[in-house]
Amino acid sequence: MTTAQTLPKAAPAALEVHGVHKWYGSHRVLDGIDLTVRPGEVTVILGPSGSGKSTLLRVVNHLEKPEIGHVSVGGELIGVKRHGDRLRELSERAILAQRSRIGFVFQNFNLFPHLTVLENVAAAPAATGRLTRAAAQELARELLDRVGLGDKTGAYPRQLSGGQQQRVAIARALALRPGIILFDEPTSALDPELVGEVLAVIKDLATSGTTLVIVTHEIGFAREVADQVVFIDGGRIVEQGPPGEVLDRPRHARTREFLGKVL
Amino acid sequence: MSELTGAAVSLAEAPAPADTPSKPLSAQRVQPLRRPGRWIVTAAVLVLVAQILHGLVTNPFYQWDRFRYWFLRPTVLDGLLVTLEVAALSAVLGLLGGILLALARLSGSPVLRAVSWTYTWLFRSVPLIVVLIFLYNFSALYKTLSLGVPFGPAFVTFDESRLATDMTIAVIGLSLNEAAYAAEVVRGGILSVDQGQHEAAAALGLPRGHQFRRIVFPQALRSITPNYVNQLIGLIKSTSLVFYVSLLDLFGTVQSMGSTYPGDVVPLLTVATVWYLILTSAVSVVQFYVERYYARGATRALPPTPLQKARAGLADLRARLSREAAV
Questions:
Q1: Structural domain contains residue B117
Q2: Chain A contact for B198, CB < 8 A?
Q3: Alpha carbon of A97: minimum distance to chain B alpha carbons (Å)
Q4: Does a structural domain hold residue B44?
Q5: Is B2 within a domain?
Q6: pLDDT, tens digit, for every residue of A214-228?
């Protein structure tokens, strides 16, 4: 994991994870993760359940605090600030402001059920004062068109299929105009026939040059869109590289074993 | 295994007694099951209800003419107004206090959590009547009330004897009590909101106040409403205790009129009963529409209003009748 040092100073990485450790009680979930994602790159994180891949994603936007190590997005430290040679926790307000520049798409969509689709998407840009209410709704309409749901603006989330809900959730993340979007198993809660429509939207984002980090079990999708595949097991990165290497010629036995099970 | 074959045999035998050859089996409508037991119980209950109604109307004990005389008397209406005023003020103050207590209880600060817990523990343990009478004697204990630093200077000082009217004492007492219960109702509501909602609101970077006011609380209200209305109905009835701090509410008025006109005690109590019934019914109607409002998005279709239900029922009946006529 020496990529961080070889990067030119002028262009900060879209995402840098440095020596992140995380425990839940006595259980070690993340055990020294280092990861670099360059702007415009698509990174797919694979790993068995309980390997810490979702936790890693949640550490990136500070939904979880790392015990040791730090994360920076676009060159800016997340959740902490440097104070001499120490790191200090940021105020909640500052952390919220940082999160509003990072898109996050949940496995269970987590749309706000009491708000219409349009209100769901327009909520963040309007509430953070970045856009006026009218401009936020205009943007929301545009984004819902982009994910193919321009005709559902007035619907409530529970009136939509799972695939449609996840596409609304993606539009909601896009409304932040984020520098990076994190996907936490975006298709795992979907019926098989609805997976395709969500992957198509994500693929569209990937080809348009948005920086994406995707935790998924869709190996075929990973092969198609990923610039970099990261295999995690036991809270450590076991293997990483282009999909052609990690997926087709895995060097580690554990990677081979995992791929043997899911393919 | 033998049971299975037994079933198969009886199935095979079933169509054998074909004494009604009129229609093929597939074209026949299923005869609804007869329930003679249900008819007998219904009849018995109807007779009982009729007896009670008959007694209510004809028994001279109730003195319905005196009821009519008292029902809209200005003194009674004044009392009703006091009841409404006390109930409304304490409901609002109690709910606000309850929300603050619930937030304190769910906060990260151990001091706030402990204070909130202790408050709830104290006011749920002490009977309301004790709180009220305590407050009533409070002005004798503390002549002035001041806002300031403990052991330090006071910023604002109130003369308590002027501030503590009977109405204030009643409202404060009921609100203090109500807040303790409302706190638990609100806390339960907030806890019932899915953790994913908190996370999604946090992940979007929504400001803290916005997260609570626009995302969590509206969803919590769905389960808060029925529980709080329950509280509210209890509160409306508890207002009758303010009589003991010499405030003439509905019950107080009826009580004092009763001692002036001893012959009218029963009709006066009936007057109070009917007014309390009307109040709780009004609250239930409001509850229905509030719940319907907060059900937006929670169900695929909103529950129908009584009017819509009646219309649908009528249409249903008409369709059934026309179907029966066609058969």
A1: yes
A2: no
A3: 6
A4: no
A5: no
A6: 999 999 999 999 999
